Records
---
Amino acid sequence: MTTSHTSPNGSLVEAAAATANELVAACAAGVRAPAYVIEGCVASLIAGGHVMIEDVPGVGKTVLAKALARASGCSYSRVQCTADLLPADVTGVSVFDQSTRAFAFHPGPVFANLVLVDEINRASPKTQSALLESMEEQQVTVDGTTRTLPEPFMVIATQNPVEYEGTFPLPEAQLDRFALRVSIGYPSATDETLMIRELASRDALDMVPEVSDVAALRAAKAALDHVHVDPSLAAYVVELVRRTRDDARVDLGASPRAGLSLVRIARARAMLKGRDHVLPEDVRALASMGLSHRLLLTPDARARGAIASDVVDEALLEVEVPVG
Ligand SMILES: Nc1ncnc2c1ncn2[C@@H]1O[C@H](COP(=O)(O)OP(=O)(O)OP(=O)(O)O)[C@@H](O)[C@H]1O
Ligand SMILES: [Mg+2]
C-alpha cells in the first residue's frame, strides 16, 4: 500500500483505509465476486452511495449484501419487492394506540443502515419512487412528520436483467440515484469448484467476520474530506461526462449528479488504496460502473446493438488523461 505521510490528516486517512480494507477482505472471505465489485460496494458504503446489482439468479447478490452488513456491523433489513408492496410497507406507518390514545410510528424496513431491496423492478412505480426519494433525501415523511434515516445509510438493490415479465423497469431518472451499477457474473471454474466444496456444509456468511462498526464507518466517511481532488482531475471527470452527452448514440447523457457521485466514490476508492489523493485510475476503474446505467441510448443505437458501457469505454479512450 502506498500511503502518503505528507498530510497532517494522514493518520485519519490511514485509519479509514484500514477499515475499508478490512471490510473488503471480510466480504471476500464469504463471497466470490470480482475484487472491483466488492471494492465498489465498500467504497459506496463509506462515501454514502447506493448500489444496484444487476445479475441473473443465484450468483451471490443477496449474499454480497448480507456479507457487507455483517462485516460492517451495520443494522440490516430486506425488502422483497412485489407489485402489491405499498410505500408504507417500506417507510412505515403511524398506528393509533388505544392504550395511550395517540398515534405511534412503526418504522418500516428502510430504517436500517443497509437496506437490501430485492428485485426492485417488481415494485410498483409508486413504491419505487417512495423508496428512491428516501435514498436521495436520507429521510422519510409519514403523515406530515419527517424522520431522518440512520447514518450510514445505503441501499443495495437487485434486479434480474433477463426477466421482464411483470416488472416495472426503473426510469433513467431513478437509476441516476444509484452511485454504481455492478454485476457479479459467474465465477471461474476453479472458484466455483472451491465454492461448492466450502459451502457444502456451511453457509457463506459464516465465513464473514464482523470487522467494523457504525462509528468506524462514520469516521471513515469524515476522513474522505482529507482525500484531495486535483482541479485537473475534476476537469477530467467533467470532460468524460460531457463526452457521453455529445455522443450521437445517446439521447440522455450523464448528469452533473453523475460526475459528482463518481468523484465521491473515487475518493473512497483512493482511500481504500491507501492514498490521500484521487488519481485518474480511480475514476477510470469506476467510470463504467458509475456512468453506464445513467445513459439512455437512442432507439436507433439500441436497434443496432449499441450498449451504454461502450459509450463510456470510448469516452475513456478518447479523453486525455491528466498527468499528475
Ligand atoms: N459468488 C458467490 N459467492 C458465495 N456464495 C455464492 C455465490 N454465488 C452463489 N452463492 C451461494 O448460492 C446461494 C444463492 O446465492 P444468493 O442468494 O446470494 O443468489 P442471488 O444472486 O441473490 O439470487 P436471486 O436472484 O435468486 O435472489 C447461496 O447459498 C450463496 O451462498
Ligand atoms: Mg437474492
---
Amino acid sequence: MEATYEFEKKYRDQILRCSSCGFCQAVCPIFGLTLRPAMNTRGKMLLLKELMDGSLEPSAEIADIFYTCTACKACTYTCPAGVEGNEIVEEVRKRLYKDGLAPESLTGVRDSIFKQGNVFASAQDERIEIYPPVLREKVRKGELKSHAETLLFMGCLPSYMDMKIVPSFIKSLDAAGVDYTTLATEETCCGFPLYLMGSDEFEPQARRLIEKMRATGARELVTPCAGCYKTFTTLYPEIGDLGLNVYHSVQYFDRLINEGRIELKGELSGKITYHDPCDLGRSCKIFEEPRNILKRVPGVEFVEMEKNRLDARCCGGGGGMQAYNPEMAVDMAALRVRDALDVGAELIVSGCPACKDNLRKGARAIPKEERGKIKIMDITEVVINAAG
Ligand code: SF4
Ligand code: SF4
C-alpha cells in the first residue's frame, strides 16, 4: 500500500520508537476526561504508524483525534522514549489542514484573523477601547509615540474579551515609569491560532507583525499573554529576527519589583495559588517569577497545588480546544479548579488570558456549594491591586 502521511526523520523515528508503554496516558488531560485510548499520545502514535504505511487514510474522524489535544506538552515530558507528542500533533495538523480536514470551528477563527486581524472578527479600531482613557486619547489624537524603549503587546483576548488585564498591565507599567509604546489599532493576532490549526498562513502573518514591531525601534517587548510569548520566543525565530528581547509580564514585573520600581504594599488576603499556563511553564520553563511575585504580596498565604510546574495539570484552554471543543475545555478547567479547592485556595492566579477565561468557566461549572467564593485573576490584576 502507498504511504499517505510522511514525516521528517526526527518525527518518523519518534513515531516508530513509541513502545506503547502508556506513561503518557496518565498525564494526558484529554484521556483523563474521555478515557478514550485513541486520544492520548500512545493511541495517536498507533494511528500514525498506520497512516504512514498506508493502511489507514486521513478522515474527519482521524482529524477529530488530532485536533482534540491541548498541546500541553505533558506527554512529551513523561515519555521515556523521547516522543514529542505535542510537536507530532502539530505536524499532523499541517497535513490535515492541507487535506481540507481542519474543523470548521477553527477555520472560522482563521477567517476572522484574515478579515479583521483578530480571532474574534471584532473591528480593528476597537482594539484600543480597553486602554486606560489617557492612553486611548493619545492614540485617537495621533500622539502615541512611534518609537520607545519598550513595546507592549496585548494579545487578542486581553484586547477584546477581558475587562481587567490590559488596564492593570498598563497602569502598573505607568506606576513604574516605563517608557513604552504600543501598536494600538495596528496590533494584530500573533498568528498562534493559525499555527495550532496547521495553517501555512502563520508565516506571512508573523512576517507582517515582525515588520510592524521592528518599525517601533523598541529594544524590548512585554506581553501579558502566554500564547503570544511562546509564539514570539519559540516560533518567530524560525521565521525572522524580531530584533528585540521578549518578556512575559511575570518576568517583567518580577524585575520591576526587584528593582524597587513597583512596591507591593498589600490589598489582598487569604490563600492564593498559581496555575502554570502550559505555554509559559512546560513550554518556556517560566516557573519561579510568578511565584516570587505572589509570595511578596503582603497579607496573602501562597499555597501550591499538588500538580505544579512541570507536572501542572493543563486547564484545557490551549491547543485550539476552546474553539474546537469548548465543552471539553471547560470540563478540564473544572478539574483544575478542584485542584485549587483541594488545597484550600480562595484565589487562583495565572499568567495567561486563555487560562483565566477557561478557569472562570470551569469554576462556574462546579456547584456553588463546592466552589465557594473561589476567584480567578491574572497576575497583572494582582500586581495593580497590591501596588495600589
Ligand atoms: S509514553 Fe512515549 S513511548 Fe510510552 S506510549 Fe506514550 S508516547 Fe509511546
Ligand atoms: S499535548 Fe497534552 S493533550 Fe495533547 S496528547 Fe499530549 S498530554 Fe494529551
